[in-house]
Amino acid sequence: xxxxxxxxxxxxxxxxxxxxxxxxxxxxxxxxxxxxxxxxxxxxxxxxxxxxxxxxxxxxxxxxxxxxxxxxxxxxxxxxxxxxxxxxxxxxxxxxxxxxxxxxxxxxxxxxxxxxxxxxxxxxxxxxxxxxxxxxxxxxxxxxxxxxxxxxxxxxxxxxxxxxxxxxxxxxxxxxxxxxxxxxxxxxxxxxxxxxxxxxxxxxxxxxxxxxxxxxxxxxxxxxxxxxxxxxxxxxxxxxxxxxxxxxxxxxxxxxxxxxxxxxxxxxxxxxxxxxxxxxxxxxxxxxxxxxxxxxxxxxxxxxxxxxxxxxxxxxxxxxxxxxxxxxxxxxxxxxxxxxxxxxxxxxxxxxxxxxxxxxxxxxxxxxxxxxxxxxxxxxxxxxxxxxxxxxxxxxxxxxxxxxxxxxxxxxxxxxxxxxxxxxxxxxxxxxxxxxxxxxxxxxxxxxxxxxxxxxxxxxxxxxxxxxxxxxxxxxxxxxxxxxxxxxxxxxxxxxxxxxxxxxxxxxxxxxxxxxxxxxxxxxxxxxxxxxxxxxxxxxxxxxxxxxxxxxxxxxxxxxxxxxxxxxxxxx
Length: 572
Known about the structure:
The protein has 572 residues and is mainly α. The protein has 3 domains: 9-56; 69-323, no CATH class; 327-568, no CATH class. Helices cover 78% and strands 0% of the residues. It has 17 helices and no strands. The protein has helices spanning 9-30, 36-56, 69-136, 146-217, 229-292, 299-323, 325-351, 354-367, 375-379, 382-398, 407-425, 430-444, 449-462, 476-483, 494-508, 515-535, 550-568. The chain starts with 8 loop residues before the first helix and ends with a helix. The relative contact order is 0.07. The chain crosses the membrane at residues 12-32, 38-56. Keywords: Membrane, Transmembrane, Transmembrane helix.
């Protein structure tokens, strides 16, 4: 018979108690004044605990398992090893293959759309440049001034650059796809590595489980104490499935992040090319304008070329609006800043005294009824710390405890709180998002401006100073939103949240009860977004920035609190 004895923590405790009792006995001989009752209590407790621990620390023995069963179980587990490998492989493949294919499909879809737009854009520029060449290039033998020759040379150089861009686009996208494959391979390897260790743990646990079951049942020679492989396989699957699920969720998050990063890389390439074309067209237009000042300049040809340049610049500006390269850079910086702001807010909120905490929450409760107990606490708990820290810092400014140089940080704390709330509580359906395709041409013509005017009016009545920050946002802002393929079901920014609510209002029609609050919410989100962008540092993650207008802080605080209040009572 085999007996296993693990020396565990109970043995150590038993030895410690024995030493304690011995020392008490020794000490009691020297402490003549010790009371008899105290000695009896200590001795009784120590004796009782010693007896209990002695019983509990008896070694586990498999006295009911015959010797011949142990190698039988070992053999069964060895035979089960390839079966377990097959089960694990099936479970992992079933979970990860769809994730991998989705990542490939998403990237192909994103890059396909971007490349189509890039080719259309490049060909548009190329066709325009060829038209300009017809206006500016005359037959050989015609004498050209130095400036006209330089203009023709500049146009030819732009043609070569655009042609190279079109030729290299497919190569660039293929390289991005290769990067995705490397990321998939790396992340799958990491996933398998984690699951291999869980696999071994599951097998060891399963072996111990078999021993325990056999010990409970009892076994005699000639019996078949090990269950059939199908049953062991079922038990193994139950053990390993949670680990597979967790690993798959982690893989999904990582692949999503990689696809977003690579898609942004393609967008960045298009952004750089678009900006280069805008700059080159401005330079060409300036050259043509200078030539037009010459008394003997071919005005008709140059005038036609200049008109084409202006038209091309306007068309490229529309592309710039769609690609929104500035917004993407700014949003990436804001994402980094927001993470830091949230961490700092949590530290500040946790360091408040009870009185400070009660005072701040009391002021916020007056504005946002039940703000820390209802929807925010359940669905956007992070906003609680942000609002608490923002309100604390605001009143420190009021009391002169914080210097002006920290005002930008407070402005961005309010922005982060409102945006966090909106990104959590605002969402639209796929049907609503698809509606963008039907109305985008109408939006460009300013057809749906009635909602925007109502939003401006609502903001003017609520926070008059904020209305000026809404000027010029429609229709261009909404049009860019309708063209943007990266918009999801939940917003990434306050502006996205505003245009989602705008779109939903158009899609669902008027609701007499909700429309006024929704229009106000749209206006506040747009105004808040504009103020936020003034203080996000595009070239530097640092948040310290000069604030020359105290109204920005006041308007941001009022807008943020009102946004949270409206969303907290389900008006969004």
